[in-house]
Amino acid sequence: MGSIHGKTIWITGASSGIGKSLALELGSRSCNLILSSRKKGELEKVKELCGGTDNIAVLPLDLQDLDKMEHLSQMAISFFGKIDILINNAGISQRSLIMDTKLDVYEQLITINYLGTVALSKAILPHFIRNRSGHFVTVTSLMGKFGSPYRSGYCGAKHALHGFFDVMRMEHEKDGVNVTLVCPGFVRTNVAKNALTADGSPQQEDDVATQNGIDPETAAKKMIKAIEKDKFEVYVGGKEVKGIYLKRFFPKLLHKMVLKSRVR
């Protein structure tokens, strides 16, 4: 892709965390931005932090509303006439044991983290194909590459995203469509506080690993570099990134290390 300067970029989950940091960084690069999440008030605040200019649009979106994605995509396109990059950043985590977790919690995790992202991406795909260019940037997680206790539904949904978008890349490379999968480790956001527990209620408290993670500004800058280089995958975080390579070459060792760490 080269320089991201001046591109039109749609960011989901833009009201906080990595999405907010992406908006601030991309806003400084003269990009046209479409900011989406469920929280319109918070999106308006991010827009103001970005300068509140005419090249920033706010479009509330709930990934659970699968049947609205076609309409929302047409609205997004109408703001600037074209979308160059869709950053699928919105999602929700989990902190509960398999034995305790209600099935409808798994359904919610799959709907938000996987089906909502798939529905939105399918809705924008024809636009990318017509333009013979487009870039899906999907934020999964290191948990999309290996597992960890208390995150079974989250891991399952994130693994599914890798399968889907690997095939998206294969099927539509000929149409000028690129795919970058971003796998963050621990980043200092509200992801742990908002994580669903066994009954579907939010955890409402942070965890040590998240508190000790990298800052979202650093994560955003690394993501942008990966987008500009058309990377297939990028791993963002601290020492936990080593788990990718341990899973590949020493899976039993990773299994023992994860259990020993007792990460919540």
UniProtKB/TrEMBL annotation:
Gene3D superfamilies per record: NAD(P)-binding Rossmann-like Domain (3.40.50.720)
InterPro entries named in the record: KR_dom, NAD(P)-bd_dom_sf, Sc_DH/Rdtase_CS, SDR_fam
Every Ketoreductase domain range: 7-190
GO cellular component term, pick one: membrane
A single MF term (Gene Ontology): oxidoreductase activity
Tagged with keyword Oxidoreductase: yes
The UniProt record lists the keyword Oxidoreductase: yes
Keywords: Oxidoreductase
PANTHER family in the record: DEHYDROGENASE/REDUCTASE SDR FAMILY MEMBER 7B, DEHYDROGENASE_REDUCTASE SDR FAMILY MEMBER 7B
Family in the record: Belongs to the short-chain dehydrogenases/reductases (SDR) family.
Protein name per UniProt: Oxidoreductase
Organism whose genome encodes this protein: Flagellimonas marinaquae
Lineage: Bacteria, Pseudomonadati, Bacteroidota, Flavobacteriia, Flavobacteriales
